[in-house]
Amino acid sequence: MPNSITRCSTTHRCAYERDPIVGPVVMRMLEKCPSGRLPNVFDGTVIEPSLPTEINAIPGGPLWAAGGMSITDEAGHPLEERNRFSLCRCGASENKPLCDGNHSRQSRRGRPMSSNSFQVGDTVEWNWGNGTGTGDIVKQFTAKVTRTLAGSEIARNATDDDPAFLIEQEDGDRFLKFQSELSRT
Question: Residue 78: helix, strand or coil by DSSP?
């Protein structure tokens, strides 16, 4: 069901449509809603941007499916028609298969996006100080691992759900990171 604030008609205009400053801002927000949960409805017609059919992984977030595809739940029931969906890939959503944002409420080392998100040879990045670090995965671990890196002993309690990866940078420096700390470059 579209959010009631976006239901407008020619006989009763929404407050945001009458405001020359707020109106365009709200319209842009509705157009950019990644889940499609906030469509703009005018005279009973849903106004949606035209989007190509595609599925993309949002780093640290859901899968974004666009282009008016049909989505069904685990029981095979079709979901409401939308031009775009945000689909859960962390398993924490209470509204599966849709993302409800629970991934953002998890700790930094919380549930990973998928146990197969990264492979040896992938180039990844992670937050490091005020910037990011980048390197290539050289090994994956799914059990406790300890390595001496740059003179310090680093340990990770890796699991099948949140594996650890040994990552090497171009200069030869190595890092041990959890999957949940990484994103694709």
Answer: strand
The pair of three-digit structure tokens given for residue 174, joined into one six-digit string: 């190595």
Burial 73-95 (b: 16+ CB within 10 A, else e): eeeeeeeeebbbbbbbbbebbee
Single out the residue of 45, 51, 48, 23 nearest to residue 37, CA to CA: 48
CA distance 37 to 5: 12
Torsion of CA 15, 16, 17, 20, to 10 degrees: 120
What average pLDDT does range 161-177 have in this prediction? 92
Please tell me which residue, 20 or 137, carries the higher pLDDT value. Answer: 137
Confidence of residue 87 (pLDDT cuts 50, 70, 90): confident
CA-closest candidate to residue 119, choices 135, 139, 97: 139
Residue with tokens 């924490």: 92
Global pTM?
A: 0.45
- For residues 169 and 183, what is the distance between their CA atoms, to the nearest angstrom? 15
Rounded distance, CA 150 to CA 153, Å? 8
**Alpha helices (H) along 21-69:** 22-32
